[in-house]
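HUMAN: I'm a chemist; might I ask for a sequence paired with its structure tokens?

ASSISTANT:
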Amino acid sequence: MTKSYCLEVSGDFACFTRPEMKVERVSYDVMTPSAARAVFETIVWKPAIRWRVTKIEVLKPIKWISVRRNEVGAVASTRNVQAAMSAGSGDLGLYVEDERQQRAGLFLRDVAYRLHAYFELRDPSFHKPHFPHLSKSPINSGENDLLTLPDNNPAKFMSMFERRVSRGQCVNQPYLGCREFACAFRLVDDMKTEPTPIGETRDLGWMLYDLDYSNAADPKPRFFQARLDRGVVNIPAWESEEVRG
């Protein structure tokens, strides 16, 4: 396991959408592991590494806000995109006036979390076929030792993450569940000077952990029994029996 990092994130609003809510958006009480992983990936994401979240600390009391807003209820057709790519031109526009939908949402407001995570190197036989354009080495069925190549060592990615986060740099703006809810972030180096989490303790029920991409054509959601223990949600290992599909 590589070095563990801690990020503090904060924002005015957040929505970690419950997948069982089909129409209106309703957030979980606390940030999900997949949302926390996405924050780290906005700073450093490479096909060769995978972020693993170990703990989420809640720094502000859980508060809610109900918002009614307009959303676009359609996405560009894949078939139209393929046709436009073949023809070299095409109309891929979405007209907001035709696709506008008004929906209510139950969101979190005034949130702050401390996210603990580390990264590990991934099996190159899984990610290289999906990202051949990002690989410097050819794809060979017998390559099992690519993890030892100079371009895939942990020190390189650790240095990259520390350099970027110390400068406040990111590839994409981090967000809290929805892209419109951007958040501020900073690296926490010394926990002794940081505020303690809220003192709340209660069960949070089954929470989305992440999507299982072992079959990239048909990703499946996996869940775990989340518990807030004096403001801290400990995240079980992805391979543990606590994580179920």
